[in-house]
From TrEMBL:
Belongs to the Cu-Zn superoxide dismutase family. PANTHER family: SUPEROXIDE DISMUTASE CU-ZN -RELATED. Transmembrane segments: none annotated. It comes from Jeotgalibacillus proteolyticus. This is Superoxide dismutase family protein. It comes from the Bacteria. The lineage of its organism: Bacteria, Bacillati, Bacillota, Bacilli, Bacillales. The keyword Signal applies. Residues 25-64 are annotated as: Disordered. Residues 25-62 have a biased composition (Acidic residues). Residues 79-210 form the Superoxide dismutase copper/zinc binding domain. InterPro entries: SOD-like_Cu/Zn_dom_sf, SOD_Cu/Zn_/chaperone, SOD_Cu_Zn_dom.
Length: 212
């Protein structure tokens, strides 16, 4: 009789130990799963933060917009040109008034100087690749060549033009912000897009220095 009781108690104790061990294994597995989930979440958060940081770095590398003040032969401010870097080049938003009616050549020139009244200090067209002038020339255009501007009878012009061959990024061969600087010039005649060296665009009517 006593042996039966002892055997029964032994079996009960053994079953209790087995059940306790299984419970600990399940808790350990649940804890491990929770820890793995937390680690995965932390890794995902870190990757997201890194992506955001890369986006911010890209944004911070984009050059700031520039405002170019355009003056006439009397050194009067008659307009502005806003320059903004884009994937396609430099976007020029031009607003000017008090101009004669007609079609006029428009270019970036190689020096950041605008000495009135003739603006010859601006130098030749901006041409870092030593190309020929004009979009209609087989060896053109200059990096600084731009489409003609059309001024209405009210003497005003509002244009948005993308200069595809230049950049505001410093250190680049075609940067408008090189050591010499550059300038924007509006001529007195239309550019024919082919005649060397400047499209037979006449004298210089307006000029503005491109600078920070």
């Amino acid at each position: 009789m006593k042996k039966s009781i002892y055997l029964f108690m032994f079996l009960v104790l053994t079953m209790g130990l087995i059940l306790a061990a299984c419970g600990n294994d399940e808790e350990s597995q649940e804890g491990s799963d929770t820890s793995n989930e937390e680690t995965t979440d932390r890794d995902t958060d870190t990757e997201d933060e890194a992506d955001i940081g890369e986006d911010r770095d890209t944004e911070s590398e984009m050059p700031e917009n520039l405002t170019v003040d355009l003056i006439n032969e009397d050194e009067e401010n008659v307009g502005t040109a806003e320059l903004a870097e884009s994937d396609e080049g430099v976007v020029i938003t031009l607003n000017a008034s008090g101009l004669p009616e007609g079609e006029f050549g428009f270019h970036f020139h190689e020096n950041g100087q605008c000495d009135a009244p003739d603006f010859e200090s601006a130098g030749d067209h901006f041409n870092p690749t030593d190309a020929s002038h004009g979009t209609d020339h087989e060896d053109g255009p200059h990096a600084g060549d731009l489409p003609n501007l059309v001024v209405g009878e009210d003497g005003e012009v509002q244009e948005e033009i993308t200069a595809e061959h230049v950049t505001l990024q410093t250190g680049e061969e075609n940067s408008l912000l090189d050591d010499n600087g550059t300038s924007l010039v509006i001529h007195t005649e239309a550019d024919d897009y082919e005649t060397q060296p400047s499209g037979d665009a006449g004298d210089r009517m307006l000029c503005g220095v491109v600078s920070r």
